[in-house]
Queue: 3 jobs
Job 1
Amino acid sequence: MRKIAIYGKGGIGKSTTTSNLSAAFSALGYSVLQIGCDPKADSTKNLTDGKRISSVLDAIREKGENNITAEDVLFRSPSGVWCVEAGGPTPGIGCAGRGIITALEKLEELGAYDICKPDIILYDVLGDVVCGGFAMPIRDGYAKNVFIVTSGEMMSLYAASNIASAVRNFGKRGYASYSGVILNSRNVPDEVEIVQKALDEIGGDIVSVIPRDSAVQEAENQGKTVIEALPHSEMASCYRELASRIIKLTEDEQ
């Protein structure tokens, strides 16, 4: 089983990248589970025809922690991807990071992984802060490989540096390893060179350069991934190529 965490600054295109990867992996014949770890609970909406699914924390609030079942929080997309949203606390109350911990522990308790039997698990994680909760997927054996989505913009690279540092700290304890960055282009002048220069200090390599393309918005307007809405487009080919590279770079743990 490949266990992969995708981190990145909010708004950088992390969820778009993750959901397109999930769809690409599924099209390749893998059983895929995508777990959204953003409090907004919108990681999987492009896999579910633009509809938001009930999050783990929503289900707990509605039914009580001891009354929910796997069916309350585990959904199968039209493309065959299993989808889960961790969710977040009531605004102004509680800790979003703690919500991720609760959600991941509850999924284990409910036997969600046994139901899905995934070949690949993708954790979509907000990376503006890397506190204990948001670091949960890269510790305790949840994820094995971490990829960071970034652009050539300063704040995105700042977040990438913090995430890479956090992953290295956990890596010393035998947890997840930093496997490189995915450059989600924002058409910043000399963007590839800027990111490569930053990586000289941060470490790691550019795994793939994803161009800025209107196909992404066109697909999202349909509530779909590019892989599903525009399978013959250049962008779909980019995501499929990225999926193939990640397969080669990640460990398949039996």
Job 2
Amino acid sequence: MIDVDEARRRLFATARRTAAETVPLSAATGRVLAAPVTALRNQPPFAASAMDGYAVRAADLSAPLQVVGEAAAGGRFERPLGQGEAVRIFTGAPVPEGADAVLIQEDVTRTGDTITTTETLSPGANMREAALDFAQGDILLPAGLRLAPRHVALAGAGGHGTVPVQCRPRVAILATGDELVVPGAPLGADSIVASTTPAIAAMVEAAGGVAVDLGIAPDDQAEIARRARAGLDEADILVTLGGASVGDHDLVRPALADLGIALDFWKVAVRPGKPLMFAPEPLVLGLPGNPVSGVVCTILFLVPLVEAMLGIETPGPTLHDGILAAALPKNGPRRDHVRARRTESGLAAFDRQDSSMLAILSRADALIVRQPHAPAAQPGEPCVYIAL
């Protein structure tokens, strides 16, 4: 049995980055950049007015000015501004050559084509200088960045209609067990709903992968091997659910062996989730069948594996500092992930932590992380947690 950090190290050591593809900006949100995005232009590309008003020479404001034209966004005033002249200008329009300030319209008295003001301005007032935001050749977005809408906007402003992104890893999910039925199907007296599959698929998709549901395999070694082979043929990672322990009906390990797949490890010092299997070539992650164990191990191992394949430099989950609102007993030999809720006074663990209890997981918004053999902790003591 290996510890959590060693298990993650081995996963990341064998994670192969996916290939790159080019997508339009409309499809880029949530994707991970495969290469830096550099500016193809200055922004703004010219000195631009920041206000509606008049483009002027700041030194001329003590005398009346003659309005000689207009500049709007997309339509510049074509000739240089002369002494004693002003140009009506609107926000975003190019400032005419020769002008060095914009006098806002609220500070102007206009009679016909003549304007006067009592204001004084310094050069550059109410203007945006060329390349104020960024200059051509600047790196706007680094490789490995997961694109949010604000990043997509920046890429577009930099002159890009498409961006290079990592291909989404395909993750095939195979549940195993005679007792399982898909959610919504009729239930027999001894049936259990395969509730973990849609949760894991959703987490894979949110992480940037593509989930492929292989359905439910019965407790038949040959059938598990057949479906596993089919999953490996169409996906980058095969995830199995259940059948990873050592009981008579735990057939995933021998089924993988029938395919010539050698496991790197099959037990991790983690709670919940000790029966966790991993094979590096091809990539197979065998998650425990208990639903909370499967979800927690997806957070700790599967999602970070997807992120590593996408080129994210520091795969999650992120650990946050917190304060305990209630006491915790001493921990055992495995790293524990205690379902808890965040309150005004800190994190309070739920009294019951059974790995089959999804109702408690659904009410939790944090997992308190406790290291092996951690001593008992009291309210007010610091802790570390993963936000859900």
Job 3
Amino acid sequence: MFQATREQSLGPVEEDDLISGEHSDAPRDLEPGRVQGVMTFAGHLRSHLSLVLQLLCLLLCAVLLVAILAQVSKVPSCHQQVPSKTQEIRRDVMQLKAGLANLCRPCPWDWTFFQGHCYFFSKSQRNWHDSVSACQDVGAQLVIVRSDEEQFFLQLNAKSRGPTWMGLSDLKKEGTWHWVDGSPLMLSFMQYWNPGEPNNHQEEDCGEFKNNGWNDDQCSKDKFWVCKRPTAPCEAA
């Protein structure tokens, strides 16, 4: 009886659902056609994503290849001749010498510049007359002292070498001192004679730098000497 009553309460639609085996509460939008469309779209999406990833991988590989080729091109070929360190130093020295040779300077390399003049301090020794000639041969004079500053400069350099001839003598007249250019010794310079000098001991007629001042000595003795000449605008190498 209960079964009969239930069957009578079911409407036409519910009967159809029961016959078809589908529950009335199942969603009506999940129809077979729609499900098939969703699955097809998902498949296409996965296919496109895979293609994009492949293209990105190819692009990354291409960039890496270009970077590697660029670095390799910077490496010198093993066949290129790379100069040794010695060759580089020799080349730099030659360039330096060439540059120095073209420098414009007021005095030659082995001369000393002081207050507009060039001075040559000899490394060998000669008598007074030969010293005069040696200076003349290079266009200079055996040194003539013209100022207190010059005297200090000359005395300091001569003292480090030893007794050194200057261009001063009383050969023409005993006791009357003249420079090699004929000019007389000024009285203000008499202060530079060492104590007790000049004494003309044994015909001492030529002046020299000795110790802290001047001394007269025999002109025939060999001593160092100093040449003096004006500066030049540009001295040849």
